[in-house]
Structure prediction request, 505 residues.
Amino acid sequence: MEIRVVQGSITEVESDGLIVNLLDGVTSPGGATGAVDRALDGMITELIRAGEISGVLNKTTLLHTGGKIAPKRVLVAGLGKSDEFDYAAAAKAAATAARFLREKGARAITSIVHGAGIGGLNPRDAARATVEGTVLGLYRGDLYKTSDKEPGEMERFTIVERDPDKIPDIEAGTREGHILGDATNDARTLGNEPSNTMTPAVLADRARQVAQNTGLEIEILDQQRMAELGMGGLLSVAQGSTQPPKLIILRYRAGKDKPALGLIGKGLTFDSGGISIKSHEGMHRMKYDMSGGAAVIQALRAVAELKPDINVVGVVPATENMPGGSAFKPGDVIKCLSGKTVEIITTDAEGRMLLADAITYAIQQGATHLVDIATLTGSCAVALGNNITGVMGNNREFTNRLMEAARLAGEKVWELPLPPEYKEQLKSGIADMRNLGSRYGGALTGGLFLQEFVEGIPWVHMDIAGTAYMTKEEAPEAADSYTELGATGVGVRTLAMLALRLAGR
Ligand code: BES
Ligand code: ZN
Ligand code: ZN
Prediction:
């Protein structure tokens, strides 16, 4: 889809549909919506009065313009209440409107920037939200449907702004929104691919393509190299599968002597649980267990395009967790890359084993700050549901920076504690640690396990087990969310925004 910004009057730029907006409770619209209302002889005000147009978030009302203005149709998109308005609301309104117009057959649409000046949103961020929401809203997850596909793609999205002074900011935000939206959608596709088409080798190939397109450096370690280095954590999980594991490393270099942000993503292309096999119910969803890895690959791609002045290294350990004849077993003791030994209590707590090695590897590569992102524990999903990612960290300032980046990116996070006294649960009689704590507080012992490998550098752990994908049964609110059903691409925008913020954007 082509995305552009033009300076002019929204009533004069031709399109199949023009999107304007309305806050909940407003009875006589001002600004651009007011201008359209006047050009349509007060039709919008009249319909508000008749109770037919509502400003409720995600509500849309379609009007035909009968040749009174250049656009064939006007869609009034609800922004919700002004005191509840934020970045995500602007993006959602844009997503809903674009999806609605595509269904009506529109192929080229125009829009105003949603929400500039409301809820503290500046024009640049409002433009980013509008474009990002549009790109995310138009995503399709029907990768392998051969029939019943909704026909037609949106071809052009044009933001129209009257004030020439605002154009540079709106252009900057539009570019950012386009990049972040595309990167998030590509992470969603990686996640939505089933495990038979998304093996560790395929994930590595996709990362190679990203590197080729963006100029990122890439290195892929194979099983033999992992063995030479001593990556027992990653290798132990991989050994029950016939698919060879890959360690994917992507590097973005802004220059020497810059801090280096290390991003680590769990790349489990399928988690059967291994010998501690999962119940069949919902096991098909474990194709999404590489969503953290997808987020890291696509965050690096966004970083390569946005070019912040900071070094970033992405590390994605990719493997399946399968109960093959040579699979690791409960009771096994594994030596990780760091030298620490771990007693396996359950082979289903496999994520922490690969992340441990990836964390050590990122530190060896010179990372000064670390963020890992992983579908780590069902416990986190139980605690926070499907729309809020759990974060845990070892450094107040760095955790705050990540949470601020998430807020600016329109992604919800909530901090969970890392209680030192719970470390007792990870003690083993035979090895340095065991890989399982108590059933209660499982997200926290997951975080505490990882903390043992970060060697005191600033680190944040993001548990996306609840937020990596949406299903209708579990999250009916997903139906009107801008990431819809399936993989959400969660984390791409937060991680990219963190890199930008650390570099001073
Ligand atoms: N991949 C799962 C976690 C998960 C659960 C992701 C639900 C998405 C939705 C992870 O490897 C796992 O199996 N975790 C165990 C941890 C436990 C054994 C400590 C879990 O959640 O039960
Ligand atoms: Zn897993
Ligand atoms: Zn597991």
